[in-house]
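Task 17 of the worksheet. Students: predict the tertiary structure of the chain below and write it out as C-alpha cells. Keep your answer in the requested format; marks are given for formatting as well as content.
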Amino acid sequence: MKRVKKRLKMSKFERLLYIFTLVMVLATPFALVFSQATLSEVNFEVEKTKKQLSTQEKKNESLTMKINELASLEKIQEVAKEQGLSYNNHNIKTIMGQ
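Model answer:
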C-alpha cells in the first residue's frame, strides 16, 4: 500500500493571514525594545533639561538678590557720596503716573 500524502491547500487569504501573523510575532519584540530605548533616551533628555532649568533658576535668583542689593537706598546713597553728591530733599520732585 502506498501512502498518499495529502497537502492542505490554503487560500490566498489564509496564506496572507499566516504570513502577517508570523511577521507580527517576529517584529513585536524588536518594536518593544526600540520603543523602550527611545523612551529611555527621552527620559534622559528630560532629566538633563530639568537639571539645566534648576541651575538657571538658581542663577536668576542670585542675580535678583544682587539687583535688590544694588538698588537699595543705602547702596545708592553710598555710591552718591563716593561720587561727591549729596542728598537734598528740596531738589526731589515726585511725578505721579496715571
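Marker's comment: The radius of gyration is 39 Å. Helices lie at 12-70, 73-82.
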